[in-house]
Amino acid sequence: MFAIPLWAKLRRSRDMSVVAWHSLYDHSADVAAVMEALLAVPTISDRLSRLAGRRLDATDQARLVALAFLHDIGKANRGFRRRWCAGVRGEGHIAPLAALIYGNCAEERERLLATLGYVHWANWINGAAGPLFDAVFAHHGRPWCSSRQADCKLWQVGGGINPIGDLAPLGDALPNLFPAAFSSAPPLPEVPPFHHAFAGLLMLADWLGSDEKFFPWADGKSTDRLGFARVQAAAALATVGLAVEPLRLAVRSVAPNFGTLFDVAAPRPVQSAAPMPEARCVVLEAETGSGKTEAALWRFLHLFRSGAVDGMYFALPTRVAATQAFERICKFADRVFGTNRPSVVLAVPGQQMADGGRGHALPNFDFAWDDDPDDAVRRSRWAAEHPKRFLAAQIAVGTIDQALLAAIQVRHAHLRGAALQRHLLVVDEVHASDRYMERLLAGLLRAQLQAGGHALLLSATLGAGMRARLLDTTPPSPEAAEDVPYPALTWRIGAAEHWQKIEHSGANKPVRVAALPLIDKPDLVAIRALAAAAAGAKVLVIRNTVSDAVATQLALETLRGAEQHLFRVAGVPTLHHGRFASEDRRVLDGRVAEMLAKRRPEGGLVVVGTQTLEVSLDIDADILLTDLCPVDVLLQRIGRLHRHAERTRPSEFSAAQAIVLVPAARDLATFMRRGRHGLGGDIYDDLRVIEATWRLIEAEPLWRIPAENRHLVERATHPARLEAIFAELLADNSKWREWMTMVWGRWTGQSQQAGYALLDRNTPFDKLRFDADDRLATRLGVKDRLVEFDPPMAGPFGQEVAHLRIPARLLPEAAIEADPTGIAVEDGGFTFAFSTRQFRYARLGLQIIT
Questions:
Q1: CA angle 464-465-470, nearest 5°?
Q2: pTM of the full predicted structure?
Q3: Strand residue runs (E) in 610-738
């Protein structure tokens, strides 16, 4: 009978015969070598030591490497080994080992531990069923399952396989390969955060140690695999951006110059101040257009040069914003690192980019790049080739979701967390988070700081309540909150906030803010916008919902004289919102930026859109028409108004004007039961903030931006102010109590959902379960469908549309997992169906037909 070898990896030909394989011993050596190399990285070692509660010495590190060497011993079971034979249904390797350790196979378990020499290393860990042992065997991304009944036969001799006996070479090799591990020393720390971090590092080591580009398979013929793997591991870490000391030395050799890096004469005050605080979590608040992105990059450079961080993850609220920031950060990396710069990764699943190349996954875990890079460049993009590896890149730009996946109980959260902890985490537009995401972000920040990592939170203006929740401090009184300067850097010292005032780099912008009761009248909004455009103005109309934006656009197109003032892409009149394919969003963003740029074509223009116009677009409007919204959002929108003070504008619009569209009746009680126009519903559900903002508009018709930003935001968002407003509303209408009960229940539910989703790294690893792995998400309601069209469809603006994201709320329940049907081309776009629901994708974006 053919003796099946103790294998870890194999490849088959088309006739299903084995054409290449890798032994368990050799793969174990590969992963151990990567773990050893990771622990030699100063930043990683420092983070792990902090979580362990003491400095990890050479003995500790050798023990962790030895445990990594044993991570795949479950592959010795007969069920897994039989998978060598074509057509045989085999077993996995995690569950059978868990069953052996926790089940009723006492005899087999004792033989296994004896074969592995457990008696010689039992003092390292708290038992073979303890938390650190559990962390070793969570390397497939989640805690191993110990609930199934043991199948002892899988570990008994039979069919030419001796599962436990065949592991003897691994057990015998431990003291020879890792002699330092067997020195007399205290046990490894019994601290849950340390175990969680080790689990993440082992997942990372397993992913990298399993990559054939760095660790070619040996068909069981290696003579000194660990020696070979150590050389490969050092090279692999340097190539993919996990070992950065040579780059750091090179960067330190040249004094950084802000002007050279960012093509400016000198940094603005907010940019000069960014590197100064030594705190590990800093909030930077400054007005839109003040250069917060450059300030964040400048802080990263100083932290990197000092050895405080090894890399950066720049997190933005949307995929489109991430794509826009990607190009800027690539340019920054070019200038900082020169020809030796690491790959900069766009961490957006389905849109992976690294440097100038766009990639897509192929079968059998392969990956293709459209710029056809050479082998060295291809290897350097390792982190870009799979979403679970994004955060392992030295510099990555993506959505906040990729970072939050390190904070919730989903597969490979530990890998993401271990990779992120060595970085500066930059979170842009942090004020845009809802209660669910806010609590997840707070949990992520706690884990980041607990490990000694760094974070920078960017916001136009952050209310004292949210700022205190993220920094884990007590919010100041309303009066004290208004006294905090603006712009400012804020951080925590002890349990209190500490702040540093930043000088404003330009003159204050006076903005006339007026309420107009037209939120229900898209036709009148269109008339008002067109009149301004006819007078030569660049008009920005921001509606809270896609349906209101589309209604306004269609009303505009019916007006006489509108033709020459319509916003167009590729000659097609359209608007700007989030229900366009990514291919079209890129051209939409580019066209908006072109038509509303500092230097733009002359003549009047109306651009209609939603919140997508207020995020990450450098645009400058002469007049703004916007739906009523929370004051911090309104300030963000006003940031797109008269952005460049030196511009010459039509005389009628020489002063900045923001017309706020409000309900006809001065009573928000009608929005309590059913939200409309984004107020009181899923978008802006806190009607107290809406009421406070409306009162500010009525009481203070002239806003001086940014001098009054802090005053405006605290007046309309501070918890104490909101309680007072609610008391007034309740005194006038007792139904507000019912609303508060309903909305408070919703907020409590969101907070509880976030608490349920969060990964508590203080939980002992052996008590950890990921029971809801398939149901958890980084945002409430993000189970959207990313529909693929193969071949791509012709879009409305001359782009091929290969993917289209459809909000889950627009789909019938039965269609969440279904494929589209009835795809048909029509003039200017195409139609398709899910179940009984018909969709059109054309110049107005994605719409439901029936």
A1: 95
A2: 0.92
A3: 623-627, 656-661, 702-705
